[in-house]
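hiii, so i know i said id send this last week but things got crazy w the move. better late than never?? heres the sequnce for the chain we talked about at the cafe, plus the structure i predicted for it. fair warning i was half asleep when i ran it
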Amino acid sequence: MIEINNVSKNFPGNNKAIDALNLTIPDGKIVGFLGPNGAGKSTTIKMMTGILPLDGGSIVLNGFDIEKNPLKAKKIFGYVPDQPDMFLRLKGIEYLNFIADIFDVSKEVRQERIEILTKQFDIYNALEDYIQTYSHGMRQKVIVTGVLIHDPDIWILDEPLTGLDPKSAYMLKEMMREHANKGNTVFFSSHGLEVVEQLCDEVAIINKGKLLFYGTLQEMREYYHSDKSLEQVFLELTNDE
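okay and structure toks below
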């Protein structure tokens, strides 16, 4: 479970990047996090993962406060950032072993997971190459593989499907569904409204740092007395703002 309690964030020259945000993401759900560019999605995710400090409120992941118990909180989630350009001077296999070392994954378990995941993502034969030689999509795949090596309870994904080929995108969506079906939490931001509509159990819509809606698509249609698509409702909500 992810509990975001009255969270705020200010940046210089910006009144409030995040304004008193309250959001509770239950176990066993895939939740899509939507908003226009600059709405506060990545800022929220970076606070959830401990990259940015909170200016107010609290974020609790499966009972662990991200600021009061950062090490314990970070053990239980996997994070895919919106830009996969990290550790470019490492080889793919060096990066994956580095991540496995951080999370104390045994050699036997890591070898099995690395082989299975990288073959599924079709990057197994590139593991001895440096990440800086990878395409954007390959970098995304190796980052996602690193996230999955320690099998975290909570997945926090910022635009995870960007740059993936159709086969790999389908595979990741299937993994997300399977993970949630096991009683775990998947929270991801996306600009692909059709994907969110197809995949997510619930959606959270944010704009200008404020939560506009959280619930199922059916609840959204009932609340706004509309049978329109998610795309149409989303555009109406955010344009009104």
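btw The chain has two domains: 2-76+154-240, 85-152. thought thatd interest u
miss u guys!!
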